[in-house]
Amino acid sequence: MQAPLSPAAADTVAAAVLARHDGRQDQLLPALHALQDAIGFIAPARVPAIARHFNLSRAEVHGVLTFYHHFRAEAPARCRVTLCRAEACRSMGADRLLAHAQRTLGCDLHGRSADGSVSLDPVYCLGQCANAPAMTLDDAVFARVTPARFDALLAHALEADRPAPTHPGGPSFLPEAV
Ligand code: FES
């Protein structure tokens, strides 16, 4: 994961991102995605400037940011885990996987591990229903995840301080190594 920007650098980047998106309201979502990609999260303090730029109320921008689970209001953890909580995954062991993750990390969904290094969030379908249960670790999708694979993935990501291994062009099924 990239190093966090200083507040001043984040302000500069945010202004540049907004400048690249004209004030049309259909540009709001692309701008929010670009902001989060560039800065890592969209702090509540940025909402007034975003609202002004798109001629919207603060409540409208806040509503969009909170409607989509993708958007974060605070700096992301070093490792970001999401577990699929939709039907196909739940029928294939996602509840057991969630219980294991909660025990391992010592936190509930929407929480963080005690040292703050790992966040745990729900997601609703990752397009891997035929290979459930699925999860993401940072920006990589993993399918057929067992508790043991969960542990291996997480250990790899934390040890290496880099994203877990993935296979180009599709989700990792983690055959042998990790
Ligand atoms: S239900 Fe989990 S990937 Fe579709």
TrEMBL record:
<feature type="binding site">
    <location>
        <position position="89"/>
    </location>
    <ligand>
        <name>[2Fe-2S] cluster</name>
    </ligand>
</feature>
<dbReference type="GO" id="GO:0051537">
    <property type="term" value="F:2 iron, 2 sulfur cluster binding"/>
</dbReference>
<feature type="binding site">
    <location>
        <position position="125"/>
    </location>
    <ligand>
        <name>[2Fe-2S] cluster</name>
    </ligand>
</feature>
<comment type="similarity">
    <text>Belongs to the complex I 24 kDa subunit family.</text>
</comment>
<dbReference type="InterPro" id="IPR028431">
    <property type="entry name" value="NADP_DH_HndA-like"/>
</dbReference>
<feature type="binding site">
    <location>
        <position position="84"/>
    </location>
    <ligand>
        <name>[2Fe-2S] cluster</name>
    </ligand>
</feature>
<dbReference type="InterPro" id="IPR036249">
    <property type="entry name" value="Thioredoxin-like_sf"/>
</dbReference>
<protein>
    <submittedName>
        <fullName>Formate dehydrogenase</fullName>
    </submittedName>
</protein>
<feature type="binding site">
    <location>
        <position position="129"/>
    </location>
    <ligand>
        <name>[2Fe-2S] cluster</name>
    </ligand>
</feature>
<dbReference type="InterPro" id="IPR002023">
    <property type="entry name" value="NuoE-like"/>
</dbReference>
<dbReference type="GO" id="GO:0046872">
    <property type="term" value="F:metal ion binding"/>
</dbReference>
<keyword id="KW-0001">2Fe-2S</keyword>
<keyword id="KW-0408">Iron</keyword>
<dbReference type="InterPro" id="IPR041921">
    <property type="entry name" value="NuoE_N"/>
</dbReference>
<keyword id="KW-0411">Iron-sulfur</keyword>
<dbReference type="Pfam" id="PF01257">
    <property type="entry name" value="2Fe-2S_thioredx"/>
</dbReference>
<keyword id="KW-0479">Metal-binding</keyword>
<dbReference type="GO" id="GO:0016491">
    <property type="term" value="F:oxidoreductase activity"/>
</dbReference>
